[in-house]
Design a protein that fits this description.
By secondary structure, the chain is mainly alpha-helical. The protein has two domains: 30 residues, no CATH class; 98 residues. 72% of the residues lie in helices and 0% in strands. Helix 3 packs across helix 4 and helix 4 runs antiparallel to helix 5. The longest helix is centred in the last third of the chain and has 32 residues. 8% of the residues are buried.
Length: 137
């Protein structure tokens, strides 16, 4: 349980957290989610949304149970999310044409990008495991 003092401190800190204040900072933060394209919800893509619906229907196996349909949809989203993440990782590898002759600066940038991509992958796997646990009872 969080103490009252800690809660008050958190509230004061939250009031001071105003986000970016300069025009440049606001512009940069506006485009953060698009850097890898992985932060945007996958169901916002109309083409993938249809594919998610189709896979969810197959996974639900004709069930009329709300829980099963919902868990099937989450699993379908995870499948396509993981595909998108793997494609982003592949793109990073493509930017490093010749891995053996890549400079250390380029290698560091690629490692940094891989670390960010791995965080998205971890979240997707967690979401998938949670859906599987809930569907199994």
């Amino acid at each position: 349980m969080t103490s009252e003092g800690k809660q008050e401190s958190n509230k004061r800190n939250a009031l001071r957290s105003t986000g970016p204040r300069t025009a440049g900072g606001k512009l940069r933060s506006r485009h953060n989610a698009r850097r890898h394209g992985l932060a945007a919800p996958i169901q916002d893509d109309p083409e993938i949304k249809g594919r998610i619906d189709s896979l969810a229907e197959i996974l639900a196996d004709g069930s009329n149970e709300f829980e099963r349909i919902e868990q099937s949809r989450i699993l379908a989203e995870c499948h396509f999310e993981l595909s998108r993440i793997r494609a982003a990782r592949y793109e990073v590898f493509l930017t490093m044409d010749d891995l053996e002759n890549t400079g250390s600066n380029d290698f560091e940038k690629a490692l940094h990008a891989m670390g960010k991509i791995s965080r998205y992958e971890t979240r997707a796997f967690s979401k998938c495991r949670r859906a599987l646990r809930e569907s199994n009872g």
